[in-house]
What we know:
By secondary structure, the chain is of the alpha+beta class. It has helices spanning 3-16, 20-29, 35-46, 50-63, 67-74, 82-93, 166-178; strands at residues 100-103, 108-111, 115-123, 126-131, 143-144, 154-158.
Amino acid sequence: MDKALQTMIANMPEKTGKSLDEWVKILKEKSFAKHSEAVKYLKSEHQVTHGFANTIVSLAKDMDSPEVDLVSEQYKGKETLYPIYQKLIDAIKSLGSDVIITPKKASVSIIRKRQFVLIKPATKTRIDLGFKLKDKPITGRLENSGPFASMCTHRVQLHDVNDIDDELKAWIKEAYDKST
């Protein structure tokens, strides 16, 4: 999720009077055949500006694809990696109630005020875990971002649930703390 979209979502309650979740609930109570009908409804019935209305409708559509479905698709043919993913998610959720888990087609973004971790099943035997850890030195295990490019500053390759150790959890916590 890019920074502008994150900012828009964060400002939504102040600018529109409701959070994204509240708008999604309102849209789910109605049934719109077209994107434009839902946008028009938000603009005319709730006086939401076009930019916010369009964003709300787009994100509501994305939310119709449940997390489990997107994540399941990522791990098809890579099922042995799923326990690693689940252990990561459990550790990440323990950081705080402000963690947002956003599955995409090929990865899962972990967001606080901005993305701080990215989980990607890279091969049939490896998950790449990307971090935003600005100014953190590269070590043997904590590599440069590799295929994540500018989305992350560092990467750790995970092959087994035992790779999720105290050192890795400390890096996740550090990235979480820096994402305020």
